[in-house]
Design a protein that fits this description.
It contains 3 helices and 2 strands. By secondary structure, the protein is mainly α. The chain binds protoporphyrin IX containing FE (HEM).
Length: 99
């Protein structure tokens, strides 16, 4: 079930986000050029990009966040419930009564 969660939650979200990133890079070639320049300067072209590199890539990070801000692939969150009566920041959230 956990693997299924990852596949369902992780595939469409990631591929659609990448679709929008590629679209925006085509529409804004100057942004693409600056992002590529930062990747080349920080990582180079001879080794793969590592997650640890992200802190050295602020422009690339800002581009990705901006694409996600403009094109929200998950505009609505799925339903949530609490399993016991809960108070959060002064709001009472009653335990969900499932039929
Ligand atoms: C750009 C890619 C992704 C986007 C935009 C995205 C978006 C979201 C959003 C909006 C939520 C709901 C958060 C909430 O309501 O509190 C969520 C939850 C979740 N996502 Fe993603 N996600 C992405 C990638 C992934 C990937 C790659 C995985 C797994 C490999 C994943 C697994 C999950 C899981 C398991 C949850 C439920 C977390 C929980 O409620 O405890 N997501 N995601």
């Amino acid at each position: 079930m956990i693997c299924m969660d990852f596949f369902i939650a992780g595939t469409q979200t990631t591929s659609t986000t990448l679709d929008y990133v590629f679209l925006m890079m085509l529409l804004y070639p100057e942004v693409q050029r600056r992002a590529q320049e930062q990747l080349d300067a920080v990582v180079g072209r001879d080794k793969p990009l590592q997650l640890a590199d992200r802190h050295k890539l602020p422009y690339v990070g800002a581009v990705l966040m901006e694409v996600q801000r403009i094109h929200q692939v998950t505009p609505l969150a799925g339903p949530r419930r609490v399993t016991k009566d809960t108070t959060l920041n002064g709001y009472n959230i009653p335990k969900a009564r499932l039929k």
